[in-house]
Design brief:
The protein is mainly alpha-helical and 247 residues long. It has helices at residues 3-24, 28-39, 42-48, 50-64, 71-94, 97-117, 125-146, 153-160, 164-188, 194-220, 223-243.
Length: 247
């Protein structure tokens, strides 16, 4: 694969992530990380998105900051995520690359399966509040180690039944806090370098350019249709990741 093709595919991966984030308020890493991991590697895919995650989520939190339902819930959820992301960053640094890539594929399959089987699963508020810290911690570990917290974080928040305007600031604080922990951790581990920071700035530009398109799609395309398209695409990516080592 030539450098030009790699760059084009990377730009498409980031644009797809930006569209998803603009449409749903979250999920840019769900598309971007596995696609970038296939092109480059998991450590690069996670590191290049750390700063863009911080900036885009701060932007979305600021837009919807007055819609947060419960500060106690957000503090527990985001605090757990921050601690988990710190632990996951060390796993990212020390685990073998092949194991990391396979882990991304397994996490994607788990996410798709849960979404298909428990699409309408709901969680009572008092139980959701009690589980917010542990759920955030587990999601943070997945985010730090694989760049994908969605099987836990997004699924957990969907189960609470938050409206889109409530969901966005909650998940945005969660991702912001994880990024705040990941940046110094990955820098100290030698994963987040000056070059990757520069690449991250370029990635941020692509994400920001694509997010308005996602906003438009959210208004014109039924949520069920959009979800099916995303799950289908994730299924193809997961299959590619899981079969690649055998060919």
């Amino acid at each position: 694969m030539t450098l030009e093709i790699e760059l084009l595919l990377a730009a498409l991966a980031l644009a797809a992530g930006g569209i998803l984030k603009g449409a749903t308020g979250a999920g840019a890493p769900v598309l971007a990380v596995p696609m970038l991991a296939l092109i480059f590697d998991v450590r690069y895919a996670v590191a290049i998105l750390v700063v863009p995650n911080l900036v885009t989520n701060f932007w979305q939190w600021w837009q919807y900051r007055d819609k947060i339902v419960s500060r106690d819930f957000v503090i527990r959820f985001a605090g757990g995520g921050a601690l988990g992301a710190l632990a996951g960053s060390f796993m990212l640094a020390w685990a073998p690359q092949e194991a990391l890539l396979m882990g991304v594929g397994v996490v994607l399959i788990a996410y798709i399966a849960f979404r298909l089987v428990h699409a309408t699963w709901t969680l009572p508020w008092n139980r959701a509040l009690a589980l917010s810290g542990p759920a955030g911690l587990l999601g943070g570990i997945l985010q730090g180690a694989s760049g994908l917290s969605a099987p836990v974080s997004i699924t957990f928040l969907n189960s609470v039944g938050l409206e889109r305007q409530q969901f966005i600031p909650t998940i945005s604080v969660f991702f912001m806090m994880m990024s705040v922990m990941q940046i110094p951790a990955l820098a100290s581990l030698g994963i987040l370098t000056g070059t990757i920071l520069l690449h991250g700035a370029l990635a941020l530009a692509v994400l920001l350019a694509a997010m308005p398109l996602g906003n438009q799609l959210a208004r014109r395309v039924k949520k069920e249709t959009f979800d099916k398209i995303i799950l289908g695409l994730l299924g193809l990516i997961a299959a590619k990741i899981l079969v690649t080592p055998f060919f």
